[in-house]
Specification:
three-stranded antiparallel beta sheet, 2 domains, Arc Repressor Mutant, subunit A
C-alpha cells in the first residue's frame, strides 16, 4: 500500500467539479470515483491473499462457483453467465486453472457441442484453503461495521437490479 495522502483527492476533485460549475454532477462523480477506489483497495487486499495460492480473483471466483455445484462441473457457457463475464474470460481462466491441475475440461455426457469444466480434488482443496484465508484476512472484516455492510449491500443490490444486472423474482409481483 502506498503512503497515505495528506488530503482526500476525491474531495478535492469534487471541489474542482463544483468550482467549474458542474454542481449537479459533483456528488455523482465523487461517489463513482470513491467506489472505484474502494474496489481497487479491496481487490489489492484479496489478491494479496490469493497470490499465495497462485490465483487471481477471477480464477478464485470460478473455482468457488464450481465447488458450490452438486457435481463440481458446469458447462463453460453457464459458468460465464453466472460469473457475468465474457466467455473468453472463462476460457482464459480455465486454461490457467487446467495447467495448474485445479480444473479439467470434459465433454458433456449428452450434448456433444458442450464442454464442461470440472473442479479437481486439488482444486477443491485449493479453493477451500484460499477461502479460509480470505475469510480471515478480508471478508470477516472488510473495513465496514455490520450495519454499514447491510446498508451497502442493500444500496448496491438496488443499484445493480436497477441497472439490469439481475431480476429479483421475489420482489417482482407475479414472478
Amino acid at each position: 500500500m502506498p503512503e497515505p495522502l495528506t488530503t482526500d483527492p476525491i474531495a478535492e476533485a469534487r471541489r474542482q467539479w463544483e468550482e467549474h460549475g458542474w454542481h449537479d454532477a459533483a456528488g455523482g462523480m465523487a461517489a463513482v470515483t470513491a467506489i472505484m477506489r474502494t474496489q481497487q483497495i479491496l481487490l489489492s487486499r484479496i489478491e494479496g491473499v490469493l497470490k499465495h495460492f497462485g490465483l487471481t480473483f477471477a480464477r478464485y471466483e470460478l473455482l468457488t462457483l464450481l465447488s458450490f455445484t452438486r457435481s463440481g462441473a458446469l458447462p463453460m457457457a453457464k459458468a460465464s453467465a453466472r460469473l457475468q463475464v465474457h466467455p473468453t474470460s472463462v476460457t482464459n481462466a480455465v486454461d490457467r486453472l487446467e495447467r495448474a491441475g485445479l480444473v479439467r475440461r470434459m465433454g458433456h455426457p449428452t450434448d456433444g457441442r458442450t464442454t464442461l469444466v470440472e473442479i479437481t480434488a486439488e482444486g477443491r482443496q485449493t479453493v477451500l484453503s484460499a477461502t479460509t484465508e480470505l475469510n480471515a484476512a478480508v471478508f470477516t472484516d472488510p473495513g465496514f461495521t455490520p450495519n454499514e455492510l447491510d446498508e451497502l449491500n442493500t444500496m448496491l443490490g438496488r443499484y445493480r437490479r436497477g441497472a439490469g444486472d439481475f431480476i429479483d423474482h421475489e420482489a417482482t409481483p407475479g414472478a
